[in-house]
Design a protein that fits this description.
heterodimer, A: alpha+beta, Thiol Ester Dehydrase, Chain A, five-stranded antiparallel sheet, B: alpha+beta, 5 strands
Chain lengths: 157, 166
Amino acid sequence: MSGDLLHYEDFKVGDERTYGAFAMSRELIVEYAREWDPQPFHLDEELANASVLGGLCASGWQVCSIMNRLMVEGYASKAAGMGSFGIEQVKWIRPVYADDVLTLRYTVLEKRVSSKRPEMGIVRMCWQAVAGSGEVKTEMTGVNLFRVRAQTVDALA
Amino acid sequence: MSHYTSIWLEDFAEGQHATFGDYHFTREACLDYARKYDPQAFHLDDNAAAKTHFGKLSASGWHTASACMKLLARYHFSLRDAAQARGEPLPALGPSPGFENLKWYKPVYPGDIVTYGATITEARKMKSRPDWGLVMLTPYGVNQHGEKVFSYDSTVMFACKGNVGT
């Protein structure tokens, strides 16, 4: 029943994968900023050019949300996921501009089975939003929780 | 606890606190956010959500985070507007290099009202850029039952006095 979903065992330390492509645009940057992060450097070209960010750029929260979407489309929607408690760290390294196309790259850093909940696997990952130029724009570190396959079999038995 | 109304680096101090206001998670807003940025079945479909550990449809965690940014920005810009109305110069706006320890303690459900605020944990000048400083703050959200649902440890660049901008 859940045999074809990605489980804890399918993620190996050192695995690196790249997913998707999300084309940023002026419209998407401004639409998000108007609703959630109405700072001038996310809304107004002229003020953005004069700011420390050097041009109209996406809210960091929008970049995180786009990374989340690329995760969902790339693998989370095909996985026996068990949610997330949070994110350890986010580094907004470089601004994301209107002409950037972002892909999501993840690296598996470490993994273990929860001692309290043996059906739950904890996979610690680093996710990067990478622009077409190869520049890393945002880097996120945290854990994904996945069901342990062996436990699924036990539960069904 | 003192209520902060600071817009310049020098006026921030550890222990200051501010309440930003309430955000109402309507069903429509939850679905709209999830469609755009978090298209997982348990954020979009009542039946699928009922089968998960959430028990019912819940808001995307990034929606919870974005709503915090919305109210934080509204609060800070209201302080800038007040300073401008008094005829005072405005500090240059600084970006944030990132954050740590973002936690989603409990799911947020459609219909929930979350009150957001933040506590200042540190404020110091930057060694590398004398016109700027770093303010560490912990924004958080509490739902209508008084349960903490969200927090993170943020770092934001604030201008030192004299570093005027728009």
